Task: structure prediction
Amino acid sequence: MLSRRARGLPLLAVVLAGKWLVSCMQPPPPRAEGGEFVVEVVDAKGTPLVDAEVEGLVDVNPGPVASMCCIQKRFAIGRTSERGQVTLKGAPFTFRTFHFRASFGEWVPREVTASSLLLHRNTVIRIVLGPKRDVRGRVDLGPNCPLPPQLEVHASPPSMRATVAADGSFVFNGLAPWAFISVYACNRGARVDLQVGDDSPIVLALPPAETP
Result:
C-alpha cells in the first residue's frame, strides 16, 4: 500500500498546476515608463531662449533585422520655459543614440546627439543657437603647395562652396554659427569648426607635407 505521503503527491501536483495556470491567465504587469531628458536652449551669451521648439528622437531599426540601422523616431516634442529648459518624457530604454533638435525663430535649427547612458543621470543637454553669420577667411597652403586654379572651400550647414581668390581669401554668407569649413589641396586637408558667438578671423592652414 502507498504511504499517506505518497498518496498526497498527485493532489499536490494538481494544486501546483492550477496555480501555474492561474498565473498564466493573469495580465502582465504594466511596462515601466520611459525615461526623460532635460534640454536647455541658450544663445551665445548663455541667455535662456524662451519658447524654443525641441524635438527628442531616437535611432530605431527600420525592419525586423537588428543589424539594419537606423531611422530616427520622435518620442517627444516640447517648448522651452522661461528658464530655457524643457523636459522630454517617454524616452525608450535603448542602447541606440538619442538626437535633440532645437529651433528658434528664423535661426538655423541645430541637432545634437547624446548617449543612451545619460538616460539614467540628471544631465542637462545644452544646445547653443544663434543667427546666421557671414564668414570671411583665408587659406594658407604653405610653401610647397601652389594655389590650384578654381580651388573651392566647403562649408555646412547649409551646404555651400566658395571659390578661393588669388590672395587666398574666401567669403561665405548666411552660414550657421556652428558650421564647419574645410579645404583640400595637394593631398592634404584642413578644417575649422565655428563656435557660436566667436567672430574671430578664419584661417584654413594645411598641415606640412609628409617627407618621403
